[in-house]
Batch of 2 targets.
Target 1
Amino acid sequence: MLRTPHWPRTPGAAIRAAAITSAFIAILIAFLSPLAYAAITSVKTQTQITQANAPVLPSNPATFEYNGKKLNVYFVPLPDGTTKELALFKPGRTSSQFVDPSNPTAPPITWDGSWRSLDQPWQLAPEWGNYTKVWDLIDFPVPLRNTILIALITTLGTVLSCTLVAYGFARFRFPGRGLLFTLLLATIFLPGAVTLIPTYAIFAKIGWVGSWLPILVPAFFANAYDVFLLRQYLMTIPRDLDEAAAIDGAGSLRILRSVILPQAWPVLVAVFIFSFVYSWNDFFGPLIYLAGHEDLQPLQVALARFHGIYYQNPALIQAGNLMTMLIPIVLFAIFQRVFIKGIVITGVEK
Amino acid sequence: MDQVPAILAPSNPALRRGGRLGRLGWPKMSAIGWREARHGYLFILPWIIGFFAFTLIPMVATLVMTFLNVTLAQAEPLRFVGADNWSRLFGDKQVWDSLSVTLRFAVLWLPVSIVVPFFVALGLNSKAIRGAAIMRSLFFMPYVVPFVAGVLVWEQLLGDNGWINGGLRLLGVENPPSWLFDSTAIYPALVLVGIWGIGAGIVINLAGLRGIPTELYEASKIDGAGAWAQLRNVTIPMMSPIIFYTLILGVVEVLQYFLVPLVLKNGTGEPAGQTFFYNLNLYKTFFTYQELSYGATMAWLLFAITLLITLVLFALSRRWVYYAGER
């Protein structure tokens, strides 16, 4: 999709290339630093977060096991002018005994001075247990299962209905087609609030509020983005084969199934992935339709609820965030070309 | 997915190709033509049903509700109240305050949401840059992060011990703002959160830039145009349809903005009412207080404002949006 870069031919061009590339790398590092923050914070203990002058990475003051006891390690300035990391063995007010972690069998070293004035080195100590803790606290399998099921069913509905509708718009001539297609696309511009209230009221009246139905059912009635994406693709498939099949007596549905769909799988994959991630990331629908039904809520609603209780424990919140974003990010990493192409088609094509 | 095709461009083939209603009603069609049409309608039927059930009828119902006294519990008997909801709306200070919150945020956010992706895309499109494809993907990535998770990352980043203020202190700022608790810092904070999701905008702008014929740049170079003149006279006019659609969609979205502050501030509108956005007000009216008719009235006001702004932008677009192939 991208043109191959020309390698710079002059020193000036090389400097320009280096300058703009490194500027953008810097911007990207800043842009993605929130993810690094979340990852690092998610494996910190509460003390590691609150302790003063702590390094960025999750760290504890270094310790050393000596004869079954945990000794604190300090930077000790030695008489020869060097500083060594030694473990405090026998603290004293004016003179203390240290052992050398690199040579623990040697006799203890006596150092004159107050050990309290010494600095401690840091030791990397990630707290992986935060993840299992959050897993249990959120009862993660329940919202995870809900999210996956909701995403799969809405995706199924979206792919099915949008394929049929796109096929109708792409392959058949009928009066009002242009107008209807424009109307379909115009729904993208409609503020959701103007349809929300009666829809909610009706769903409440027929007893659907508090179930997945208000989220699942509309997915089976097509949406503008995915119909547009599919139609654009179907229009590029030559008609020769479907005409040949029609002459052989194949009906419209059979042509769709055995001629069009086998050629359209790249766009079907795109719609599948889009729809899955879109559903995974939907918050407002589940928020209003599943309020109070914790056993039915998907991850994001569960996460918001978890935040309401554990907001004072940043590490747990970040562990929950990462667990929620993992699958969409992995899907994106695998299907990034599909994603970007889909965004380009729905965003740029005329 | 928050970008649209340029459907309303006069060049939109959907508006030209096939199937317009004839001037004298239904066109004369052969039997085969009718069969084809019947199948076409059948295939688009799911959308037609959905359009009626989830768009058109609810829209009209919302309008009808503005003249009734519907609540979720319906303690009073249902009746026609004339323009009561509307006159209450026009006298409701909270409505106008929340509208002003939304508009003030929109004035800050819209330019950022258009200019930042444009310039990032411009940089990524530069001939000198290396690794543009990977960078494009990485810029896009936060866009797929589930919304609540993203907001909760930013809540801590913007906190007093977060990296933003840590970075500002490193740069020598002694009292960095308390982003989420200071009524003057909250909008910039929300803009920062918003910028994290501009990946789609970058991708679209970049695709648009790649679509500009290189001959235009070569010709302008021969005419002696510098980088700035090229940007002004080639890039921006050629990109104007994309900028225009980003703008229209941005307007529709920003007027409905409220979910980020809903998660951050739990719907309290803190600090000092600065996050009591119009749609939060609407959401509370309908969902918390269950005043459906009054909520519907607020929804129609929002719709009318959106429509008005969109129409004005369309009218103005003739002056600056350039469709290649039109003239």
Target 2
Amino acid sequence: MSAKDLFYSAGHEFSRAEARTYAREDLIYNVTEDLLVQMEQLSVTKLELARRLGKSRSYVTQMLSGARNMTLGSLSDVCFALGIKPDVQLPSQHSVEVEFDEGGSTTQVWEKADSLMEGLVVQVIGENIIDMRDPGQWEKVA
Amino acid sequence: MHVEARKRAAFRRGMAQQIQRLADGHRMSSENFPKEGELPKKTNGESAGHFHAFKRIPVRGYCWRSKRLENTWFISHYVYKDYQKLKARDTERLGKNWTRIEVNGDER
């Protein structure tokens, strides 16, 4: 049983657009949540992250809430500022399977979208590149 | 719930995604899954711990981790929370559900 079953009636068919939106929001939610967990582990506040990024606190808040679109560039900047290395994996073996058939049923589309999301992993791992918590590193960058 | 109609679909997706992440065993941030009030005390007066909330402003889903069933969370109820402090009635409602399920073993 998936969490979706709690919110959608059995037999509910999802349009392709809805499945795509779900997949997009799922990725945004899980990446921002991973970043928040990392920040908590590193005891880095949003204010501190904003300072390290040279951005405002509201910029960070919006980005981590998913309200502001995060680019790969900004994800990299955040990870760099936290001293962690993001690991983005795309499952090349699914590249043919996920070709959506316009005539396919919406259930099929949903299942394929789920299958794609299972293979798509964006991990924010705790491997330090440079420990940016060390004030000395920031002096070097400056 | 009094969520604007145009936001309902997004809320539903977001709520499902929060539960899915927890079910998948990923860590939840305390920002979006904060520890909220205290569970009812045991008969010997010991604390049974705290309950948490799935937070997606302005909605909260109050839940607890079962000690009776392994790797199981129960969601007590969702509220539209347009106020700051946890209300006693939500703690009470959760406490009743907790007692029914954890103490009396009645999952209904």
